[in-house]
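Lecture 7 notes: from sequence to structure.

We start with a single chain of 185 residues. Read the sequence below before looking at the structure.
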Amino acid sequence: MDYVFSSHNLSAIVRTCDAVNVGKLYYRHQRKVKLNNEITMGAHKWIFHEYIEDIEEFYKNIKKEGYQVVVTLLDDETVDFREVDYTKPTLIVLGNEVDGASDISIKYADKKVIIPMYGMSQSLNVSVANSVMLYEAQRQRAAKNMYDLPSLPEETINKTLRQWTHDDIIEKELRRVRHKPKNQI
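Now the structure, written as tokens:
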């Protein structure tokens, strides 16, 4: 998420990311944004998110890791978002609804995509655009049976399970119990 500020939009984006099994959400903005738990419906517990401070360095590293960078953009070089092969490691970049993706994101784009629209509007709400694109990626990946077996290294899976069970459940419960008055334990 490239300067997506809206708590409502980010919360909806997180929920869709969980629905299609996106493991990590990267974001950058200069304002503090709080997720809305009523919108995420708990999905924020399962999606790792990371604030990116040095976007230039981030893109260099993500490309070294073999990711293609797909940026939504309305210009002469865009292709239909369905023409991209999302079965490759892919970073999808969505900008905010006023300014779109930043110049730095566009600079690192391997593919510039558009969601075709036939009405008078030229863009979708960012959370809706996210959903449309992620469900196309999910469709392509499901067609290649990519959800049948884990694709993450075992070490990453174990680290994630430890974090979810220990940090998110056990530690939280221990903190709650420690702060109860003694006569309530």
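The radius of gyration is 19 Å. Keep this in mind for problem set 3.
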